[in-house]
Amino acid sequence: MAILNRADRGFRSTQPYDSTDPPRFSQLVETAKDAFAYELSQFFDYTTSDASYKLSETPNIQKFAINPSGSSTSSLETAVTLIMANADKVNKFPMVSITSSSIKEKKMGLGSNFATTVIYAPRIVGRNVGPFNLQSSTGTDYTITLTTYPSGDMTTSVSSIITFSSLMFPNLISVTCEQLVRVINRSMGLYYTLSETSTGCLSIEAGGVAGKSYPNSVTITAGDPEALAALGFVVGDTDSSYGLNAKPSHRYVVAGDMTVNIDIITDSINTRTELADLVYNFFAFFLEKRRFEFFGRSYFDRDQTPDEWFHIVLKNQFTWSAEVAKARQGGEQYDMIYAMRGSVPIFIEDFIDRQVVEEPIFAEQSDIAFSETLPIGDYFQPNYN
Amino acid sequence: MGCITDNRKGCKGYGSSAVGYWGRDIYKRLVEDQTVAKERVDLQDMIMSTGVRAELWTAVKTGTKCKCYKESNKASDRKCKSCHGVIDGFVPGYVKFGFETLWMSASDSDITLTNMEVTNTFKSSKAWLTDGSTTGTIESGDKAFTRNAIGSTWETDVSTFVRIAASSSVVVEYSLNSGLTWIDIAQLSVVNPSVGVIRFRATLTRTTSAILSPLFEIVRARYSHIPYEVNRPDGNYTWGPWIRVMRGSPTRKYTKSEYGDFLNMGDVTFWTTGLSFFDQTLVKESDQEWLEGPNVKIKLLDGVLAGKFFAMNNWQTSDPAGYKIVAQTFKMVPEDLEGPAYLIW
Fold first, then answer.
1. Which domain, by its residues, includes B161?
2. What's B48-90 look like in SS3?
3. Residue B8 lies in a domain
4. Taking the model in full, what pTM does it have?
């Protein structure tokens, strides 16, 4: 029976299809194509974590599995080659090809593309990569203590203690970053938020379910030396909304309604039919676990450089249209190439955070001198009638 | 004038009434002079003097349908190594001209499966271990053979797929005594038996049933029944398991398409004579002489296009006076380098 693995459900980041050419702001067309290529390759990859139920629900996905294990299987015709337009090789069939797209600008506001002001919560990042040995040598659970200002007034501080308890972590000798994040955020993390950085280190952000993230600050004030050393913190580590690391930014958005065209190209009419069903299945059913949305990595990792704030929403209007049988070179009439073109209407938006480096009021700019004495002129108070 | 007034054949009321003059029925002249046969011999001489050798593959048109054949599309899988996606999907697909080909595939009717089953999970259809089995076999029945052509040796080709190489394997063997003893298939060309029966067996194993099963598709063995004869100065034989063709000059161009850059060669016109000229076992002046498309492939062995595969696109025959066949002309197009034709053995 088909199974529902709820651990595989939910929002996830879409990795770059080409790691040397990650998404860049405003590259909506290329970003969307890359996202589709990556997600389709994940769907056809039977080595992925959700392969078991993909294979059980649509058994013939095996013959289209990507990344066959070993060169000896290449002749199995198991590889679906996912290419962008202008591949260098003409004959890598069967093939799923994201070939073209059309886009129509969509304005997300009136006038400006400004979306919101942004400032990240203050945070401190451990210097060590997990898993961590937090097993106490004294019999008393290790703790670390940190100070934040959850009310946002920067005068009323709260001291929080994080306890690495054997009640919560049966194997304290090797606790992963993910375990710390999952357990502590849902138990004792009222005024701070733990997360794992893209490099595997533990991050502590000011602000939590009972505390504002801005304005705020976070400081390590005490802790068992062994625990601090394991996590890579030292007493005195601190960050604030006003510190050097604070980068207040304005967020801008570009968006569009787009239609991505997907071709499947095969050298067998049997394969075309099966592959068409599988690709349709991917868009119409399997993406449900992702809520039919793709996200860039910055939604889940604030350390991306440059940011990847793209967001793709499928409109659930996938269409297979014309079937095509095309003769091979020279007009060969029997070994035909069978293709089918599909289209996927989507909405895509992409954000960019632009750090504010100069104040917008002219009188406070650095090249204007400030003086208590005003020159002669019309002002509100002195000569206002 | 008697024959004219009598309207006898040969006169029909026209021209001369000379006794013995065949001008009124030229066919008789052609037959008695063997004019058509002389024309064929003339063309054969031309082919033998300046033609190039070409290996030839034609599809079988009867037999067992491959398990990959799908009624919904009336087609088998094009990249199937068991049937090559030929018309009606008959196993073993293409066979090489001048050879006797024996095989064992997952689609055959004479196979015995032990702890194995045929699966359509993969393209194309193959045999794999049943759930829970760590070893299994597929074994064919006996197949008679007689190999007596000069210079002929056995050749073999095995299509198996091992997905987890560290802990699973496929061993293909043959037996010349109906399964009493088995020898690795690679030894067949060494042993090179001349006459008898042969059967094939593939043994699939994996260390545990949790490991992905290896797969078996087909094993083929063949030997030439056309002797290699008459040395030429270039080291090649005049006669052997091939045909000779004359060809036109191909046109080539380089194009850029939505899907990439590739070399595009237009069709090339070839001609040759009836096939019995190259294979004495074929019946002269019969349908066996004829190359009928579309499941015809050739691979040139000589000239600047040596090594290239061509697929027959259209074809015509010259059969003057009903004589089969003086010459046959066919247009062929080059196969894509990674196209299905390159799976043909």
1. 99-224
2. HHHCEEEEEEEECCCCCECCCCECCCCECCCCCCCCCCCHHHE
3. no
4. 0.79
